[in-house]
Amino acid sequence: MLSNILAVVAIQLLIRSVSSQNVTNEYLNHQCNNTQGRYTRGSTFEKNLNQVIRNISHLHLRNGYTYESNVVAYEVSKDPNIVFVLLQCRGDSYGSKCHSCLHTALSGLRERCSGNRGAIIWYDQCVLEISSVNTKGRIRYDSFFNMTNLKNVSSDAEQFKNKRKDLFNKLLVKATKDVSEKNGWYAVGETRIGRNKLYAMMQCALDLTPNGCYVCLEWITGRYDSYYFDRRQGGRVLGRSCSLRYELYPFLRR
């Protein structure tokens, strides 16, 4: 647990040093699920996992999302070697960019959670989950973590926090109401604070319903905004089901 926390802090320091105009795909965090057991090399589970990944590699990923399994009727099947894979790319990272993030994330997951039947890994541009349990449509409250900029705003902190809250509220509605076919539950926005601009985004995994997405984003906004973000110049919350981020610089593709 301590090593994961240190890794998150280290990566956050790295991201802050990157030019504000450079869109990165840095490793952020991972979670190895030890309750689902392990698989061995050459096992049926590994063969099924490899097949699912091959199937995903042939998809267009136009909306940057897929939830795949090695069987069709996985809702009722009791096969212990069923594999479920979620890939959710950031709203500006669809198509070939999503494929690229998939391969990066898969390599990172195999290195950090080798042999785990259940695991999640986050990069700037995607989240990848493999599981022996069907998690489709569920909000994974146990998967959330946050990262913050170590610097605080230097003046008028209350105005900053109020502007951020207003922007979050607007994006919360936009992400669940104004849905496009390209990138689904995804919203971006910006607001001016004095001479600066605040940029933010919110996104849900596309296996959630509109109501599920709203509940997920409302939960992380309420839980993290006041206490964890406070006066921080930038921050993010990431999970398997939804995420948000804000910064005083642009961090998305235009």
Automatic annotation (TrEMBL):
Under the heading CDD domains, the entry gives: Gnk2-like (cd23509)
Protein species of origin: Arabidopsis suecica
Q: Does the keyword Signal apply?
A: yes
* A Pfam family the protein falls into: Stress-antifung
InterPro entries given for it?
A: CRR_secretory_protein (IPR050581), GNK2 (IPR002902)
Phylogenetic classification of the source organism: Eukaryota, Viridiplantae, Streptophyta, Embryophyta, Tracheophyta
What are the residue boundaries of the Gnk2-homologous domain, all occurrences included? 27-135, 141-251
Signal peptide (residue range): 1-20
**What does the UniProt keyword field contain?**
Signal
Q: Does the keyword Transcription regulation apply?
A: no
What protein name is recorded for this chain? Gnk2-homologous domain
Q: What PANTHER family is this protein classified in?
A: CYSTEINE-RICH REPEAT SECRETORY PROTEIN 26-RELATED, CYSTEINE-RICH REPEAT SECRETORY PROTEIN 38-RELATED
